[in-house]
Predict the 3D structure of the following.
Amino acid sequence: ILPACNRDEQTADAYGNFEATEIIVSSQAIGKILQFNLEEGDLLKEGAVVGLIDTTDLVLNRKLLIQQKRTIGSQLQNISSEIDVQQQQLKNNLLNQNRVANLFRNGAATQKQMDDIDGLVELNQKQISAIQSKKQSVLDQMTGIDVQIEQVNESIKKCILINPVEGTVL
C-alpha cells in the first residue's frame, strides 16, 4: 500500500491516443528534386513552399515557344504591308474603273477596256481577301503558341511543392 501512495510525483489525469489528420504533400511533376529541406517536427504554414522539382527543360521550352511566337509575329508586318499595297492598287483601279465607265457611256471606250478594268478590280479584291486569310492563319498560329506557353507555365507551377494546410511534418 505504501508504494501506491507516493504523493511527490504528479501523475497524468488521463491516458489515450492522439489522432492527427494526415495529409500527404506530393509533386504533380516528374523530375529531379532540387530542393526539399524538411525535418520531422518542422512546423509549416499553409502555402509554404516545401520543395522544388527541376524546371530547366520547361523553362527552355517556354523560351523556344516565345521565340517562335516572335518569329511568326514578324510575318504580320509583311502581311499588313501586302494588304496596304493591294488596297492602294484597288483604290487606283476603282478610279480607273469610274473613268473607263464614263468613257464607255460616251462611246469613247470599248467593252474590252471595261471588262479589263472590271477584272483588275475583282482581282485586287480577291488578293486582299487571300492576304487577310493568310493574316488570320498567322494570328491563329500565335494563339496556339499562347496556349502552349500557358501549358508550360502550368507545368512549371506543378514543380513547386506547396504545403496545403498548417501543420507539423511527421
Notes: Helices lie at 56-105, 111-158.
